[in-house]
Amino acid sequence: MTIYAIGDIQGCHEDLLNLLDKVNFNPQTDKLWFVGDLVNRGPDSLSTLRFVKELGQSAQTVLGNHDLHLLAIYHGLKKNNDKSIKKILKADDCDELINWLRQQPLLFHDKQTKFTVVHAGIYPLWKFKQAKQYANELEDILRSDKYLKFLKHMYGNKPSKWSDDLEGWDRLRFICNSFTRMRYCYPNGKLDFEENGVPGSQSDKLIPWYNLPDRVSRKKKIIFGHWSTLGYFNQPESLSVTPTVFATDTGCVWGGKLTALKIEANKNGEYETQFVSVNCPHNSQP
């Protein structure tokens, strides 16, 4: 079995099919992991949603910020100007697709390979056990009758720092922002939601979340997307001899590439990784 962890698609269905053709994906023997942001901005969000849903057990996705935004649009909580989102809202199977989407997790951990998939990352001051617990808290809300209330309180940048004392919507909003919007943080763990450029372009004192010296989960193998200016990379060797952080968003929707992290066991049973990409030149430029 080969696993392909694929970066943000954002409605670029044709590019996804091109990537799967390139790697000779076989749904009978292979698995696809998606880092979220299946929809929005790209030309065919509807086909993308349908395709991933119809893969069934051959695929696993996590929720990204654009996926959650679609849920809010569907319930009339946010306005929509995206043509590909309009196609979803008008589709005969819209209700079915939305219900399927809100059942998806924020964090997926594969016990066999010991890889974890999230959209933006894992808050650097959380232990891995805490991250799973907090993800489950929000997942339970999204699958419950409190779902709409959360969507109404989902948007906002505060609180920007975790505290065990956080309660209610503030607690859930921080959990949501950490898993779906995080890029940079301050040395004390306070999150910044303004900077989105390549590392080195940020304001003084800001650090990519995965480079925080006190990051608790650095021994975990984490696959994430969300950060198109970052491109694909393995965590710098200055922090870990064996790469443990894998970025996969290479800006397909902006005319960049769509990238998969290929994960496959070698003859010794150890899992090796390799990045595979296809160009997306026909999409919009940033």
Tags for this model:
286 residues, Purple Acid Phosphatase, chain A, domain 2, 5-stranded mixed β-sheet, 8 helices
What's the topology here?
Blueprint: E1 3-6, H1 13-22, E2 31-34, H2 45-54, E3 59-61, H3 65-74, H4 83-90, H5 94-101, E4 107-109, E5 115-118, H6 128-142, H7 147-153, H8 168-180, E6 184-185, E7 191-192, E8 207-208, E9 221-224, E10 233-234, E11 245-247, E12 257-265, E13 271-279
Parallel strand pairs: 1-2, 2-3, 5-9, 9-11
Antiparallel strand pairs: 1-12, 4-5, 6-7, 6-8, 10-11, 12-13
What is this entry, summarized?
The chain is of the alpha/beta class and 286 residues long.
Care to describe what's here?
By secondary structure, the protein is α/β, with parallel strands linked by helices. It has one domain (3-279): Metallo-dependent phosphatases (Purple Acid Phosphatase, chain A, domain 2), CATH 3.60.21. It is built from eight helices and 13 strands. α6 (128-142) crosses α8. The strands form three sheets. Strands 3-2-1-12-13 form a five-stranded mixed β-sheet. A hairpin with a 5-residue loop joins β4 and β5.
